[in-house]
Amino acid sequence: MNDEYLDVDGINIHYHEYTNDGETIIFLHFGFSSLAMWNGVVPFFEGKYRLILPDY
């Protein structure tokens, strides 16, 4: 898992990326939550897919 930051028009967006050669899945959390809500789900996908979990 890579802990990354992306600057978009001066806004710093934090995200986690799980690299793999598979298709990409982006996990978006809702409202007043964080990317931690996906902790129980990630293990089912991380070996087969590239995962991106933005934390905005």
Automatic annotation (TrEMBL):
Question: Mind telling me which InterPro entries this protein's record contains?
Answer: AB_hydrolase_fold
**Which keywords does this Swiss-Prot/TrEMBL entry list?**
Membrane, Transmembrane, Transmembrane helix
Q: Which SUPFAM superfamilies match?
A: alpha/beta-Hydrolases
Transmembrane parts of this sequence: 25-45
**Name this protein carries in UniProt:** AB hydrolase-1 domain-containing protein
Q: Which organism is it from?
A: marine sediment metagenome
Top-down, what is the taxonomic lineage of the species of origin? Answer: unclassified sequences, metagenomes, ecological metagenomes
